[in-house]
Amino acid sequence: MRYLLTSLLCVFTLSLTAQEAGCTDPLASNYDSTATVDDGSCIVCYSLVSDTFSYTGGVQTYIVPNGVDSITVYMSGAQGGGGQYASGGLGGSIHADILVSQLDTLFLYVGEEGSIYYSPASISYNGGGSGGPGSQGSGGGGGGRSHIGLSMYWNLTVDRLIIAGAGGGGSTHAGGAGGGLTGAPGFGSSAGSGGTQNYGGSGGFINQMGTSGAGNNNLGGYGNYGGGGGSGHYGGGGGLMGSGGGGGSSYVVDSLTSNVIHTQGDNSGDGQIIISYYQNNFGCTDQIACNYNEFADCEDESCIYPESYFDCYGYCLEDTDSDGVCDELEAFGCTDPAAFNYELDATEDDGSCLYTG
Fold this sequence. Notes:
Blueprint: H1 2-17, E1 21-22, E2 37-38, E3 46-54, E4 60-63, E5 70-76, E6 91-99, E7 105-109, E8 146-149, E9 160-164, E10 205-206, E11 210-211, E12 251-252, E13 257-267, E14 272-280, E15 282-283, E16 298-299, E17 332-333, E18 348-349
Protein backbone atom coordinates (compact mmCIF):
# COMPACT_ATOMS: atom_id res chain seq x y z
CA MET A 1 0.00 0.00 0.00
CA ARG A 2 2.85 2.37 0.89
CA TYR A 3 4.54 1.56 -2.43
CA LEU A 4 1.35 2.35 -4.36
CA LEU A 5 0.88 5.74 -2.65
CA THR A 6 4.51 6.64 -3.28
CA SER A 7 4.17 5.77 -6.98
CA LEU A 8 1.01 7.84 -7.35
CA LEU A 9 2.67 10.78 -5.61
CA CYS A 10 5.64 10.58 -7.97
CA VAL A 11 3.37 10.55 -11.03
CA PHE A 12 1.40 13.53 -9.68
CA THR A 13 4.62 15.44 -8.96
CA LEU A 14 5.98 14.74 -12.44
CA SER A 15 2.76 15.92 -14.06
CA LEU A 16 2.99 19.22 -12.16
CA THR A 17 6.65 19.80 -12.98
CA ALA A 18 5.93 19.12 -16.67
CA GLN A 19 3.71 22.22 -16.77
CA GLU A 20 5.72 25.20 -18.03
CA ALA A 21 4.16 28.58 -17.19
CA GLY A 22 4.59 31.53 -19.55
CA CYS A 23 2.96 33.47 -22.37
CA THR A 24 1.24 31.11 -24.81
CA ASP A 25 -0.09 33.71 -27.28
CA PRO A 26 1.91 33.57 -30.56
CA LEU A 27 0.99 37.21 -31.29
CA ALA A 28 2.53 38.46 -28.06
CA SER A 29 5.96 40.06 -28.01
CA ASN A 30 7.00 37.81 -25.13
CA TYR A 31 5.56 34.57 -26.54
CA ASP A 32 7.19 31.50 -25.00
CA SER A 33 7.05 28.50 -27.31
CA THR A 34 7.95 26.17 -24.45
CA ALA A 35 5.12 27.32 -22.19
CA THR A 36 2.20 24.95 -21.70
CA VAL A 37 0.21 27.04 -19.22
CA ASP A 38 -0.54 30.74 -19.77
CA ASP A 39 0.44 32.80 -16.74
CA GLY A 40 -1.21 36.05 -17.84
CA SER A 41 2.07 37.76 -18.67
CA CYS A 42 1.46 38.19 -22.42
CA ILE A 43 2.20 41.57 -23.94
CA VAL A 44 0.20 41.72 -27.17
CA CYS A 45 1.51 44.20 -29.70
CA TYR A 46 -1.29 43.61 -32.18
CA SER A 47 -5.05 43.79 -31.69
CA LEU A 48 -7.79 42.49 -33.95
CA VAL A 49 -10.18 45.14 -35.29
CA SER A 50 -13.42 43.99 -36.97
CA ASP A 51 -16.24 45.75 -38.80
CA THR A 52 -19.52 44.03 -39.60
CA PHE A 53 -21.78 44.99 -42.51
CA SER A 54 -25.37 43.78 -42.71
CA TYR A 55 -27.98 44.03 -45.44
CA THR A 56 -29.18 47.61 -46.05
CA GLY A 57 -30.56 47.50 -49.58
CA GLY A 58 -27.74 49.63 -50.97
CA VAL A 59 -24.02 49.79 -51.56
CA GLN A 60 -21.79 50.40 -48.53
CA THR A 61 -18.18 51.59 -48.47
CA TYR A 62 -15.12 50.66 -46.47
CA ILE A 63 -11.92 52.72 -46.47
CA VAL A 64 -8.81 50.67 -45.75
CA PRO A 65 -7.13 52.17 -42.67
CA ASN A 66 -3.75 53.83 -42.88
CA GLY A 67 -0.89 51.35 -42.56
CA VAL A 68 -3.03 48.29 -43.45
CA ASP A 69 -2.03 46.22 -46.49
CA SER A 70 -4.04 43.05 -45.83
CA ILE A 71 -7.55 42.40 -44.56
CA THR A 72 -9.34 39.21 -43.61
CA VAL A 73 -12.86 38.85 -44.96
CA TYR A 74 -15.63 36.52 -43.87
CA MET A 75 -18.75 36.91 -45.96
CA SER A 76 -21.91 35.00 -46.70
CA GLY A 77 -24.55 35.06 -49.42
CA ALA A 78 -28.22 35.25 -48.57
CA GLN A 79 -30.62 32.35 -48.21
CA GLY A 80 -33.21 31.70 -50.92
CA GLY A 81 -36.82 32.56 -50.16
CA GLY A 82 -39.14 29.90 -48.79
CA GLY A 83 -41.57 28.19 -51.15
CA GLN A 84 -45.12 27.08 -50.51
CA TYR A 85 -44.00 23.74 -49.12
CA ALA A 86 -40.21 23.81 -48.81
CA SER A 87 -37.47 26.17 -47.67
CA GLY A 88 -34.99 28.13 -49.72
CA GLY A 89 -31.41 26.91 -49.98
CA LEU A 90 -28.91 28.30 -47.48
CA GLY A 91 -26.35 30.84 -48.66
CA GLY A 92 -22.68 29.95 -48.86
CA SER A 93 -19.77 31.61 -47.10
CA ILE A 94 -16.18 32.36 -47.96
CA HIS A 95 -13.19 33.25 -45.81
CA ALA A 96 -10.05 34.79 -47.29
CA ASP A 97 -7.13 37.14 -46.72
CA ILE A 98 -7.05 39.93 -49.32
CA LEU A 99 -4.17 42.19 -50.33
CA VAL A 100 -5.19 45.85 -50.28
CA SER A 101 -3.61 49.29 -50.30
CA GLN A 102 -4.06 51.75 -47.47
CA LEU A 103 -6.86 54.28 -48.00
CA ASP A 104 -8.40 52.21 -50.82
CA THR A 105 -12.18 52.52 -50.98
CA LEU A 106 -13.93 49.15 -51.20
CA PHE A 107 -17.57 48.83 -52.23
CA LEU A 108 -19.63 46.31 -50.29
CA TYR A 109 -22.87 44.67 -51.39
CA VAL A 110 -24.66 42.52 -48.81
CA GLY A 111 -27.25 40.17 -50.29
CA GLU A 112 -30.92 40.11 -49.39
CA GLU A 113 -32.84 36.96 -48.50
CA GLY A 114 -35.08 35.87 -51.35
CA SER A 115 -38.75 36.82 -51.22
CA ILE A 116 -41.10 34.18 -49.85
CA TYR A 117 -43.61 32.49 -52.15
CA TYR A 118 -46.70 34.60 -51.30
CA SER A 119 -44.88 37.91 -51.84
CA PRO A 120 -45.01 39.63 -55.24
CA ALA A 121 -42.37 38.08 -57.50
CA SER A 122 -39.23 40.18 -57.34
CA ILE A 123 -35.47 40.02 -57.73
CA SER A 124 -33.76 40.20 -54.32
CA TYR A 125 -31.08 42.82 -53.77
CA ASN A 126 -27.85 41.83 -55.51
CA GLY A 127 -29.25 39.50 -58.06
CA GLY A 128 -31.47 36.67 -56.81
CA GLY A 129 -33.91 35.39 -59.44
CA SER A 130 -37.64 35.84 -58.88
CA GLY A 131 -39.81 32.89 -57.92
CA GLY A 132 -42.88 31.88 -59.90
CA PRO A 133 -46.42 31.25 -58.60
CA GLY A 134 -48.39 28.24 -59.77
CA SER A 135 -50.73 25.42 -58.87
CA GLN A 136 -47.83 22.99 -58.52
CA GLY A 137 -46.32 24.99 -55.64
CA SER A 138 -45.49 28.66 -55.59
CA GLY A 139 -41.77 29.44 -55.54
CA GLY A 140 -39.67 31.76 -53.43
CA GLY A 141 -37.08 34.07 -54.94
CA GLY A 142 -33.37 33.26 -55.06
CA GLY A 143 -31.13 34.90 -52.48
CA GLY A 144 -28.81 37.79 -53.29
CA ARG A 145 -25.08 37.21 -53.30
CA SER A 146 -22.69 39.27 -51.16
CA HIS A 147 -19.56 40.69 -52.71
CA ILE A 148 -16.79 43.27 -52.44
CA GLY A 149 -15.71 45.27 -55.46
CA LEU A 150 -13.40 48.08 -56.44
CA SER A 151 -16.17 50.19 -57.94
CA MET A 152 -19.73 51.11 -57.09
CA TYR A 153 -21.03 49.33 -60.17
CA TRP A 154 -22.07 45.93 -58.86
CA ASN A 155 -22.24 44.21 -62.26
CA LEU A 156 -18.71 45.00 -63.47
CA THR A 157 -16.94 41.65 -63.58
CA VAL A 158 -13.41 43.12 -63.63
CA ASP A 159 -13.93 44.97 -60.36
CA ARG A 160 -14.93 42.01 -58.20
CA LEU A 161 -12.57 40.89 -55.47
CA ILE A 162 -14.63 38.26 -53.67
CA ILE A 163 -18.17 36.86 -53.97
CA ALA A 164 -20.25 34.61 -51.71
CA GLY A 165 -22.95 32.68 -53.57
CA ALA A 166 -26.59 32.72 -52.46
CA GLY A 167 -29.13 29.92 -52.08
CA GLY A 168 -31.90 29.11 -54.56
CA GLY A 169 -35.57 29.68 -53.81
CA GLY A 170 -37.76 26.83 -52.57
CA SER A 171 -41.12 25.72 -53.93
CA THR A 172 -42.75 22.33 -53.43
CA HIS A 173 -39.15 21.18 -53.22
CA ALA A 174 -36.25 22.94 -51.51
CA GLY A 175 -33.82 25.30 -53.18
CA GLY A 176 -30.16 24.41 -53.68
CA ALA A 177 -27.43 25.70 -51.38
CA GLY A 178 -25.23 28.55 -52.53
CA GLY A 179 -21.48 28.83 -52.29
CA GLY A 180 -18.49 26.76 -53.24
CA LEU A 181 -16.95 26.73 -56.70
CA THR A 182 -20.23 25.30 -57.98
CA GLY A 183 -23.58 26.02 -56.37
CA ALA A 184 -25.79 23.08 -55.44
CA PRO A 185 -28.76 22.18 -57.66
CA GLY A 186 -32.27 22.65 -56.38
CA PHE A 187 -34.46 19.70 -55.41
CA GLY A 188 -37.19 18.22 -57.55
CA SER A 189 -37.40 16.63 -60.97
CA SER A 190 -37.20 19.96 -62.81
CA ALA A 191 -34.82 21.87 -60.54
CA GLY A 192 -32.39 24.55 -61.59
CA SER A 193 -28.72 23.61 -61.51
CA GLY A 194 -26.04 25.52 -59.63
CA GLY A 195 -23.84 28.24 -61.07
CA THR A 196 -20.18 27.37 -61.77
CA GLN A 197 -16.99 29.37 -62.26
CA ASN A 198 -17.72 29.83 -65.94
CA TYR A 199 -21.44 29.37 -66.57
CA GLY A 200 -24.80 30.08 -65.02
CA GLY A 201 -26.95 27.18 -63.90
CA SER A 202 -29.49 25.84 -66.37
CA GLY A 203 -33.19 26.29 -65.73
CA GLY A 204 -35.50 23.38 -65.05
CA PHE A 205 -37.03 21.78 -68.16
CA ILE A 206 -40.17 19.80 -69.01
CA ASN A 207 -41.09 19.04 -72.61
CA GLN A 208 -44.65 20.22 -72.31
CA MET A 209 -43.81 23.25 -70.14
CA GLY A 210 -40.61 24.58 -71.62
CA THR A 211 -37.88 25.85 -69.31
CA SER A 212 -37.21 28.21 -66.43
CA GLY A 213 -34.67 30.97 -66.62
CA ALA A 214 -30.98 30.11 -66.71
CA GLY A 215 -28.57 31.84 -64.38
CA ASN A 216 -25.97 34.16 -65.85
CA ASN A 217 -22.92 36.17 -64.83
CA ASN A 218 -24.30 37.84 -61.67
CA LEU A 219 -27.99 36.92 -61.65
CA GLY A 220 -30.02 33.90 -60.67
CA GLY A 221 -32.56 32.60 -63.21
CA TYR A 222 -36.28 33.20 -62.74
CA GLY A 223 -38.50 30.40 -61.53
CA ASN A 224 -41.33 29.19 -63.76
CA TYR A 225 -43.86 27.90 -61.22
CA GLY A 226 -40.79 27.13 -59.09
CA GLY A 227 -38.01 28.66 -57.03
CA GLY A 228 -35.75 31.37 -58.42
CA GLY A 229 -32.00 30.80 -58.77
CA GLY A 230 -29.59 32.21 -56.21
CA SER A 231 -27.14 34.82 -57.47
CA GLY A 232 -23.37 34.45 -57.31
CA HIS A 233 -20.29 34.71 -59.49
CA TYR A 234 -22.60 32.83 -61.82
CA GLY A 235 -26.21 32.47 -60.72
CA GLY A 236 -28.17 29.27 -60.31
CA GLY A 237 -30.96 28.33 -62.70
CA GLY A 238 -34.62 28.73 -61.81
CA GLY A 239 -36.81 25.75 -60.91
CA LEU A 240 -39.84 24.60 -62.89
CA MET A 241 -43.21 23.22 -61.75
CA GLY A 242 -42.60 23.03 -58.02
CA SER A 243 -38.85 22.39 -58.15
CA GLY A 244 -36.28 24.49 -56.35
CA GLY A 245 -33.82 26.96 -57.85
CA GLY A 246 -30.09 26.26 -57.98
CA GLY A 247 -27.53 28.00 -55.79
CA GLY A 248 -25.03 30.60 -57.00
CA SER A 249 -21.28 30.01 -57.00
CA SER A 250 -18.64 31.86 -54.95
CA TYR A 251 -15.46 33.44 -56.36
CA VAL A 252 -12.17 35.12 -55.44
CA VAL A 253 -9.45 36.89 -57.40
CA ASP A 254 -6.61 34.39 -57.02
CA SER A 255 -3.78 36.91 -57.40
CA LEU A 256 -5.02 39.02 -54.47
CA THR A 257 -6.28 36.38 -52.05
CA SER A 258 -4.84 33.63 -49.87
CA ASN A 259 -6.00 31.19 -47.20
CA VAL A 260 -9.32 30.84 -49.01
CA ILE A 261 -11.99 28.61 -47.44
CA HIS A 262 -15.26 27.95 -49.30
CA THR A 263 -18.26 26.63 -47.36
CA GLN A 264 -21.50 25.72 -49.07
CA GLY A 265 -24.91 26.22 -47.50
CA ASP A 266 -24.13 27.55 -44.01
CA ASN A 267 -25.99 30.88 -43.82
CA SER A 268 -29.66 31.60 -43.21
CA GLY A 269 -31.43 34.93 -43.73
CA ASP A 270 -29.70 37.92 -45.28
CA GLY A 271 -26.02 37.90 -46.15
CA GLN A 272 -23.24 39.49 -44.14
CA ILE A 273 -19.71 40.83 -44.59
CA ILE A 274 -17.12 41.00 -41.79
CA ILE A 275 -13.80 42.74 -42.44
CA SER A 276 -10.99 42.47 -39.91
CA TYR A 277 -7.34 43.40 -39.69
CA TYR A 278 -4.56 43.46 -37.12
CA GLN A 279 -3.71 46.88 -35.76
CA ASN A 280 -0.30 47.25 -34.20
CA ASN A 281 -0.13 48.62 -30.67
CA PHE A 282 3.44 49.88 -30.87
CA GLY A 283 4.41 53.36 -29.75
CA CYS A 284 6.16 55.38 -27.07
CA THR A 285 5.25 54.00 -23.65
CA ASP A 286 7.31 56.43 -21.49
CA GLN A 287 4.91 58.86 -19.81
CA ILE A 288 7.52 61.63 -19.53
CA ALA A 289 8.20 61.62 -23.29
CA CYS A 290 6.68 64.32 -25.49
CA ASN A 291 5.04 61.75 -27.78
CA TYR A 292 3.78 59.35 -25.10
CA ASN A 293 1.02 57.12 -26.52
CA GLU A 294 -1.46 56.01 -23.88
CA PHE A 295 -2.84 53.34 -26.20
CA ALA A 296 0.52 51.70 -26.96
CA ASP A 297 1.29 48.36 -25.33
CA CYS A 298 4.71 47.78 -26.85
CA GLU A 299 7.67 50.14 -26.98
CA ASP A 300 9.04 50.94 -30.43
CA GLU A 301 11.88 53.25 -29.30
CA SER A 302 10.21 56.27 -30.92
CA CYS A 303 10.10 58.38 -27.73
CA ILE A 304 11.05 62.05 -28.06
CA TYR A 305 12.27 63.96 -25.03
CA PRO A 306 12.63 67.72 -24.47
CA GLU A 307 15.99 69.38 -24.17
CA SER A 308 17.28 69.98 -20.67
CA TYR A 309 15.51 72.84 -18.86
CA PHE A 310 12.73 73.00 -21.50
CA ASP A 311 9.28 71.46 -21.73
CA CYS A 312 7.94 69.63 -24.81
CA TYR A 313 6.74 72.92 -26.30
CA GLY A 314 10.12 74.64 -26.10
CA TYR A 315 9.35 76.79 -23.07
CA CYS A 316 11.61 77.14 -20.03
CA LEU A 317 10.71 75.11 -17.00
CA GLU A 318 12.14 77.91 -14.83
CA ASP A 319 12.41 81.52 -16.01
CA THR A 320 12.18 83.78 -13.00
CA ASP A 321 12.59 87.07 -14.87
CA SER A 322 10.53 85.99 -17.87
CA ASP A 323 13.24 86.99 -20.33
CA GLY A 324 12.98 83.80 -22.37
CA VAL A 325 16.27 82.44 -21.01
CA CYS A 326 15.98 79.53 -18.60
CA ASP A 327 17.35 80.28 -15.12
CA GLU A 328 19.88 77.47 -15.45
CA LEU A 329 21.19 78.94 -18.71
CA GLU A 330 21.53 82.58 -17.60
CA ALA A 331 25.02 84.00 -18.17
CA PHE A 332 25.84 86.78 -15.72
CA GLY A 333 27.98 89.72 -16.71
CA CYS A 334 27.86 93.26 -18.05
CA THR A 335 25.07 93.64 -20.59
CA ASP A 336 25.58 97.36 -21.43
CA PRO A 337 27.26 97.80 -24.85
CA ALA A 338 28.54 101.23 -23.71
CA ALA A 339 30.65 99.68 -20.97
CA PHE A 340 34.24 98.80 -21.83
CA ASN A 341 33.78 95.40 -20.16
CA TYR A 342 30.57 94.62 -22.05
CA GLU A 343 30.06 90.86 -22.46
CA LEU A 344 28.29 89.87 -25.65
CA ASP A 345 27.20 86.47 -24.28
CA ALA A 346 25.82 87.80 -21.01
CA THR A 347 22.05 87.42 -20.59
CA GLU A 348 21.69 88.78 -17.05
CA ASP A 349 23.35 91.99 -15.85
CA ASP A 350 25.23 91.46 -12.60
CA GLY A 351 26.12 95.16 -11.96
CA SER A 352 29.75 94.70 -13.00
CA CYS A 353 29.79 97.19 -15.89
CA LEU A 354 32.76 99.65 -15.94
CA TYR A 355 32.88 102.91 -17.83
CA THR A 356 35.67 105.31 -18.82
CA GLY A 357 35.79 108.99 -17.85
